[in-house]
Design goal:
With 172 residues, the protein is mostly beta strands. The chain has one domain. The protein is built from one helix and nine strands. Strands 1-2-3-6-7-8-9-4-5 form a nine-stranded antiparallel β-sheet. The N and C termini lie far apart (79 Å).
């Protein structure tokens, strides 16, 4: 008689903060313009920023690996031109504003390997408020002339303006 103990379905040390992917498309059936892959940490208190995530320090913009953003075409990231490509998305939260950073070094854990020499674009955006949100979430909203990438967690909302060539031409 032969017996075998299998642990193929035993998942030990599962990640407490799952990863998510969000796409921005100009319409339901269009090809993606932007893709973001990020970790979704839970709020440990209602404040989060300034406590769980300190003000004034570089943050991976999620949990575990540094958040990555892929632009499928050249884009205006706030007021900075950014070529199509994949970048790490870092932030420096502050109470009234955030610094948003695109960095060319991808596939890194946390912000441990962040090097400002690899920055592609840096913009500053105001910090806003919304209803309590337990898990860190990234989403997109469309505006008449472009879109916004919204970083949301606890009661904080950060809106990062994004403009494609098509959205800029539609202003003319």
């Amino acid at each position: 008689m032969f017996t075998q103990n299998s642990t193929s379905q035993c998942f030990t040390e599962l990640d407490e903060n799952p990863h998510d992917i969000v796409y921005f498309r100009s319409s339901k059936f269009s090809l993606p313009e932007v893709k973001v892959v990020y970790g979704r940490p839970d709020a440990q208190d209602k404040t989060v920023f300034g406590t769980q995530i300190p003000y004034g320090k570089i943050w991976r913009t999620g949990s575990n690996e540094a958040t990555e953003i892929k632009f499928y075409q050249d884009i205006m990231f706030g007021n900075k031109f950014v070529e199509a490509g994949t970048y790490a998305l870092y932030t420096i939260p502050n109470e009234n504003y955030w610094t948003i950073i695109l960095n060319k070094r991808t596939d890194t854990y946390g912000a441990f390997f962040y090097n400002p020499k690899d920055n592609i674009a840096i913009i500053t955006v105001p910090a806003g408020e919304g209803d309590m949100l337990e898990n860190f979430t990234i989403a997109f909203t469309s505006k008449e002339y472009g879109s916004q990438m919204v970083l949301a967690w606890a009661k904080t909302r950060i809106k990062v303006p994004l403009y494609t060539e098509a959205s800029l031409l539609s202003k003319i």
